[in-house]
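Annotators were shown the component list below and the corresponding predicted structure, then asked to write short factual statements about the assembly.
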Amino acid sequence: MVSDEIVLQIEGLSKVYRSLFAPAGTKAVDSLTLGVRRGETYSIVGPNGSGKTTTLKIVLGLIFPTSGKVNIFGSDVADLAVRERVGFLPEDAYLYDVFTGEELLDFYAGLFGYSRRRRKELVDELLSLVGMQANRRVPFQECSKGMRQRLALAQALVNDPELLILDEPTSGLDPAGRHQMTELIYELKRRGKTILLCSHFLAEVEEVCDRVGIMYRGRLVAEGTLTELAGDPTEIVITASGMSPEGASRVAAHSAVLGVEGDVVRMGHESSDRLWSVLDAVREAGGRVAEVHRPRPTLQDVFVRAIRQDAPERDAGEEVH
Amino acid sequence: MGQLAFGIGLLVAIVVLAITHRLWAPAMGHGGASTWRIAKITVAEARRRRVVQAVVVLVLLILLSMTVFSYLNPREQARMIISGGLSAITVFGILLAIFVAAFLIPQELETRTVYAVLSKPVRRFEFVLGKYLGALIILAAIMTIMTVVLVAVLLVMDHFVPDLTYSTFEPNLANVVFAAVMSYFAVAVLSAYIVLISTVSSTAMTVIASFIIWAIGSLQSQIHDLAAGAETVSTKWFFTMFYWLVPPLENFDFRHEVSNFMQVSYKAGIDAAGVGILYIIVVLLVASVFFNDRQV
Ligand SMILES: Nc1ncnc2c1ncn2[C@@H]1O[C@H](COP(=O)(O)OP(=O)(O)OP(=O)(O)O)[C@@H](O)[C@H]1O
Ligand SMILES: [Mg+2]
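Structure shown to annotators:
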């Protein structure tokens, strides 16, 4: 599904917000370079204020970079033809609140010059895709956060875009809502859309992304596929109940075992060929094996590690969920 | 003869443009259509917000309440009603313009509704133009209602007040409508200035600036006098510049002539309207340039 063609290229992007009160400015994005391939789901992950939204807004031409450039489908963002092929879900999206879902989608579809008939079909299609058919006549201001977010996603899909840019698609949603949104993103990915999303909610990103870029204080501090970032498993963890204390100490003495804590036996991944002998030792100690698994570092660990490497003197991992 | 040639030329140009529509429309993108859609949704939004309805009701009440005052002299009463009615139309028109136009764009930025629009194939100037057009339609609707009510009140009076004959009254009705239309032009010009300011500042700042511009615009002739009477070249230059920069609102004010049953120069009105349209075009162009660079 993922091809080598680069659909979105960000190069040396920097953004300094200046104001009367802060003439020196805040550096929100700092020499950011990244590329998104066709069909890929790429996620920018970073704590609050790391510059994710700023980056996406620049990509869409809503704000302008201090330096660097963005290229979409080989063209400049300012090119109107580019925006025909892109969809954007803004952070905390808000739409004209006196209108209903169907009126709003009809309006946004109209901005692409679609005929009345096509708009009608499209609105029906989108409302059922995001599961808003039943609530199509509810004014936006009376919609719950979950309904709003779905309408906002539908709004980003009116032109059946090749490239979707989603700013925190799951923020403000309850667990069920987050799950539904993740499912929707999955579905869009399955339909071959290229997706650039940003989030500080790591667990969800893990589910849907091909590649992740970790952003911290405006810079990309790590980038790669999940396996690249997480690396190989380093240990094997055996959970077994009912080991006698002296049995447990015998297991701990086994040369492949790193340590025993209560019901949990940890052994080095490099000695995986001696797993059976460890399991035998556990059984001899009276333990009933419940589970054997090789934990990968979670994205959370990777995140904290990447930030530590980047800025060891600072308190890393702040505000990460 | 010359007018006929011009008319025919215009007709031919329109027909040619219509026939070749398919050739040039793609190059324009959805330009015209987007502008119109943004205007329409702006109007629809205003209609659904009860604020506008409330203002219309309020204004109608004021206009109607003026009829209950009875004066000794019917002619004097007519004068009062025309003068009061036109003033109400003008002042409410301007106040509404300030509150409609000043919120048009800043509100979109503050509620972030602008992102979903500007990430579509919509040019910044189409957005500005669509918003302005929407405001023009809203204001036109409200001012039309007010004018119709004023005219109705005058007609009813004409019917019931015995000494007021058609001969003294009727011709003035057209003038009343004319004065109201001119007020609308003032409102349109002021709205363009407000939109311009709103492209570079917040809502609150825009509202304040709008009142200042209204005040200065109503003093244009004084500024002209200042320029004429300036002692040094630099002050003369300064006041002349200033004179050209402020909106020419005074030219649209025919309240005095109309309410005093004086001769009204339609030509002066048409000239003022022409100048007004020119100002609107220039001001909106500048607004578009500013908004183009606005970080939204
Ligand atoms: N309009 C603005 N003016 C000035 N500074 C801004 C502006 N927008 C953002 N910033 C600053 O730029 C930095 C990056 O902000 P940005 O919104 O891009 O972060 P983010 O990664 O999207 O954060 P979050 O996870 O909270 O959405 C922050 O320090 C923020 O304060
Ligand atoms: Mg953000």
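Statements collected:
1. Residues 314-321 of chain A have pLDDT under 50 and may be disordered.
2. Residues 139 and 251 of chain A are 65 Å apart (CA to CA).
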